[in-house]
């Protein structure tokens, strides 16, 4: 083992499916970290053995590797499966398509381990972050929000409108946030609910990370660590390519989080949700591709609304 490497009590869980070339790159960046996790757990929902074959050459003897085939395919269920087999006091979730910059993992671990009031931290995504909102977006946020906010980055408000942090470019190392995406995140085990991800979230599991972090944030502090930086090479997956199904999940899962976790059940909250979904459709009509996906987007919203109505009637 390299004497410059520090092993920390973290179990890293990666859910993957049919993307060994991306996973290989993610693991390469993890192995180059000066702080490395005690164990790595891969939950594989692939249709073949490509990921298993990739891991057969695993040579990072400092990190214990566990590989399992997924019992149920889906980001939330695969991560839950990984948690069941983890042993560390800190749990990390990594997407299989990220590249960690130098010392990223160390910055994350030192932040959460150094303050017992911190329940979760995540990395700053260099190619996916918010910018200070313009006049139109700020007006929309004010109308859709159910509380007055001076700034919106890192917040989750209204009908589950979750905004990524902005890049403070070194002026702030830590940004306290209300939600955490699970692209590269570490949680304190004792802060996590059981099960970690609600069984409601299936398939692509849209917003399962929002639901989890909102629960953790009720009792714990959470931070975006701006010095811990990653690149997210987000690519089309099987679930993401099913546009109508994804559109349905968006409205169904937003409603679930809004009513069950954020406990917003007033008529005004439902109106805000409908307005947010309409704004999402309209804001996407900025080019040919936007118009091309209009029909499946609307169809998915109708499917989702109908399923919610049917549940109410049961």
UniProtKB/TrEMBL annotation:
Glycosyltransferase among keywords: yes
Domain Glycosyltransferase 2-like, residue spans: 11-135
Superkingdom of origin organism: Bacteria
Keywords assigned: Glycosyltransferase, Transferase
GO molecular function: glycosyltransferase activity
Keyword Glycosyltransferase applies: yes
Matching InterPro entries: Glyco_trans_2-like, Nucleotide-diphossugar_trans
UniProt similarity note: Belongs to the glycosyltransferase 2 family.
Protein name: Glycosyltransferase, GT2 family
Lineage: Bacteria, Pseudomonadati, Bacteroidota, Chitinophagia, Chitinophagales
């Amino acid at each position: 083992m390299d004497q410059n490497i520090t092993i920390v009590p973290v179990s890293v869980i990666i859910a993957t499916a049919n993307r060994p070339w991306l996973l290989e790159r993610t693991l390469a960046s993890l192995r180059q970290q000066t702080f490395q996790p005690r164990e790595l757990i891969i939950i594989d929902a692939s249709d073949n053995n490509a990921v298993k074959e990739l891991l057969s050459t695993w040579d990072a003897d400092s990190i214990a590797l566990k590989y399992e085939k997924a019992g149920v395919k889906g980001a939330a269920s695969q991560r839950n499966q990984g948690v069941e087999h983890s042993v560390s006091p800190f749990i990390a979730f990594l997407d299989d398509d990220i590249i960690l910059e130098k010392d990223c993992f160390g910055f994350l671990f030192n932040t959460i381990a150094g303050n017992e009031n911190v329940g979760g931290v995540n990395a700053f995504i260099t190619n996916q972050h918010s910018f200070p909102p313009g006049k139109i977006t700020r007006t929309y946020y004010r109308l859709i929000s159910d509380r007055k906010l001076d700034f919106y980055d890192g917040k989750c408000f209204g009908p589950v409108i979750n905004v990524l942090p902005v890049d403070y470019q070194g002026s702030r190392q830590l940004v306290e946030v209300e939600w955490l995406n699970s692209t590269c995140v570490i949680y304190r085990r004792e802060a996590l609910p059981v099960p970690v991800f609600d069984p409601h979230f299936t398939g692509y599991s849209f917003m399962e990370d929002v639901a989890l972090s909102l629960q953790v944030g009720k009792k714990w502090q959470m931070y975006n660590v701006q010095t811990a930086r990653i690149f997210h090479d987000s690519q089309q997956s099987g679930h993401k390519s099913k546009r109508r199904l994804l559109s349905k999940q968006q409205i169904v899962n937003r409603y679930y989080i809004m009513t069950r976790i954020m406990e917003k059940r007033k008529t005004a909250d439902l109106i805000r949700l409908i307005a947010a979904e309409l704004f999402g459709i309209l804001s996407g009509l900025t080019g040919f591709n936007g118009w091309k996906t209009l029909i499946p987007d609307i169809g998915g919203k109708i499917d989702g609304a109908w399923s919610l109505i049917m549940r109410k009637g049961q």
